[in-house]
Design brief:
With 367 residues, this protein is an alpha+beta fold. It has one domain. It is built from 14 helices and 10 strands. It has helices at residues 3-19, 21-32, 88-101, 103-106, 114-131, 167-177, 208-211, 216-219, 226-229, 231-240, 263-267, 320-332, 335-340, 343-366, and strands spanning 74-75, 107-109, 136-141, 144-149, 155-159, 181-187, 193-199, 247-256, 286-297, 304-314. The strands form 2 sheets. Strands 1-8-9-10-6-7-2 form a 7-stranded antiparallel beta sheet. Strand 6 (181-187) and strand 7 form a beta hairpin. Helix 5 (114-131) runs parallel beside helix 6. The longest helix has 24 residues, at 343-366. The radius of gyration is 24 Å and the shape is globular. The relative contact order is 0.13.
C-alpha cells in the first residue's frame, strides 16, 4: 500500500461516515435490534447466570464527623433501577414464605392505590424484560399479556381483559419478580405524601400492617432529628419528583443476629434490629444492613413508586476503610441517636473489633 493510500483511505472513510451518519445509524439499529444490543437497558444474561452475579455495589459508609440526618439523594442509575444478583433464588424463597405465612403483615394496599399498583407491575415487568431478557419474558396471547419468570417458573398476568392484576395482586406479583420491596406513595388532601400501598418484606422495626396509610412525616416520628433536619426537604423533594427525574439514596443500619438464625429471621425484622439483646455479640453476629432506596414518579397515575433493596455485610467482612468510617460516625452520634440505633448492644464490640484490626495492620507494617 502506498503512503498516499494509507493517508487517503481513513480520510475517505471519515468523510463517508460524516456524510451518511444517519443512514449508518439506522442500518446498525435495524440489523442489531433482534439481538437486543440497543435495547433501552440492554443485557443478555441467561437464567442460570444469576448465581454468579455480584450485588450492585452498596454505597460505602462515608465517615462523617458531624452527625446530621441527610437526604443524600442522587440521580437514579436508571439502567440499574431494579437489580438481580446471586442471592435472588434464596431471597425469593424467603419472600415466598413471607407472602404465604405473614401476608397481612408484609402486604397492604388501600383501595385508592389499585391503579398505581397495576402501573407499578407494568413498569417493573417492562424494565425486567428489557434489562434481563433471558430471565424475564413477556408473553402475549390474544389481548392478554403476562410475564414469565424463567428462573422460578412463575407467570403473572400484567394486563388485558381477564387480568386479575389490579391492586394487591399486582403489587404482590411485582415484589415476587424483584429483589426490592415496593411501596406506593400518594398525596392526601393536605398535600402530604402517605403510604397508600406497600409490600415491605424486609422491614426494620415496623410492619405495613400497622403503618399503612401513615404520612411520611408520621412514619419517621421515631427517628431522632428527622423532623428538624430533613422533613421539609423531603416534602419538597417528593413534590418535585417527575417521571423523567428518578432519584436514589442509601441508608445503613447495624443489626444483631443469633448464630442459629436463618435468612428469614435476619431479613424480616418487624420488632427492630437489635431486639435480640445479645450482651456481647461477636463480629460475625454484627451485620451492616444497607438499603438502596429508589424513587420514581409513575407517568400514568402520577403516584410515587418507592423501592428498597436490602444488602447484608458481616462486620468482619467490611473493608477496613469502611470499618474506620463506621467508628468515626458512631463517635459523632449524640447519646439519644446512639440509643435509637441500638449502639448500647453492639457499639463496644464494633470499636473493639476496629481497634484489633488496626493493631493487626500495624503489626504487619512493623514486620
Ligand atoms: C428522601 C426520603 C427519605 C429520607 C431522607 C429518609 C430518612 C430516614 C432515616 C434517616 C431513617 C432512620 C435510619 C436510621 O438511622 O436508623 C429512616 C427510617 C425509616 N424510614 Fe425513611 N426516609 C425517606 C423516605 C422514606 C419513605 C418513602 C418511607 C416509606 C416507607 C420511609 C420509611 C421509613 C421507616 C418506616 C423508617 C423506620 C422508622 C422507625 O424507626 O420506626 N422512609 N428514614
Amino acid at each position: 500500500m502506498t503512503t498516499f493510500s494509507l493517508v487517503a483511505l481513513p480520510i475517505v472513510v471519515l468523510l463517508f461516515v460524516v456524510r451518511y451518519h444517519k443512514e449508518i445509524r439506522n442500518w446498525i439499529s435495524t440489523t442489531t435490534k433482534d439481538y437486543g444490543f440497543f435495547k433501552k437497558y440492554g443485557g443478555s444474561h441467561s437464567p442460570s447466570d444469576v448465581k454468579g452475579m455480584a450485588p450492585y455495589p452498596a454505597q460505602p459508609i462515608k465517615g462523617r464527623e458531624r452527625y446530621r440526618v441527610m437526604m443524600d439523594i442522587r440521580k437514579l442509575d436508571v439502567q440499574n433501577w431494579l437489580t438481580l444478583d446471586k442471592n435472588y433464588m434464596e431471597e425469593h424463597s424467603v419472600r415466598d414464605d413471607l407472602l404465604r405465612e405473614k401476608r397481612d403483615k408484609v402486604l397492604q394496599c388501600l383501595p385508592e392505590s389499585a391503579q398505581a399498583c397495576q402501573e407499578a407491575l407494568e413498569e417493573v415487568s417492562e424494565f425486567l424484560c428489557e434489562r434481563y431478557p433471558n430471565m424475564f419474558q413477556k408473553l402475549v396471547q390474544g389481548d392478554r399479556t403476562s410475564i414469565q419468570n424463567c428462573m422460578t417458573g412463575e407467570r403473572f398476568d400484567i394486563g388485558g381483559s381477564g387480568s386479575g392484576g389490579e391492586g394487591i395482586d399486582a403489587l404482590e406479583a411485582a415484589v415476587r419478580l424483584t429483589m426490592e420491596d415496593l411501596s406506593i406513595l400518594m398525596m392526601n388532601e393536605d398535600g402530604e405524601y402517605y403510604l397508600a400501598a406497600s409490600a415491605s418484606l424486609f422491614p426494620t422495626g415496623w410492619t405495613v400492617e400497622e403503618r399503612i396509610g401513615w404520612t411520611i412525616s408520621r412514619l419517621h416520628e421515631p427517628v431522632p432529628l428527622w423532623h428538624q433536619h430533613v422533613a421539609n426537604s423531603v416534602s419538597k423533594f417528593l413534590a418535585r419528583l417527575t417521571p423523567t427525574s428518578p432519584m436514589e439514596r442509601s441508608n445503613y443500619f447495624v443489626e444483631i443476629k443469633r448464630p442459629d438464625e436463618n435468612l428469614i429471621e435476619i431479613l424480616y425484622r418487624p420488632k427492630g434490629l437489635c431486639e435480640k439483646d445479645l450482651s456481647v455479640p461477636s463480629p460475625e453476629e454484627i451485620i451492616i444492613r444497607r438499603e438502596r432506596q429508589t424513587f420514581r414518579r409513575l407517568p400514568k397515575t402520577g403516584t410515587i413508586l418507592f423501592g428498597v433493596k436490602t444488602y447484608l455485610t458481616r462486620l468482619d467482612q467490611l473493608p477496613m476503610n469502611e470499618l474506620e468510617n463506621l467508628a468515626t460516625e458512631m463517635r459523632s452520634w449524640p447519646d439519644y441517636v446512639g440509643e435509637y440505633k441500638g449502639k448500647s448492644v453492639w457499639g463496644a464490640k464494633v470499636l473493639e473489633f476496629y481497634k484489633s484490626r488496626v493493631g493487626q495492620m500495624n503489626e504487619k507494617v512493623e514486620v
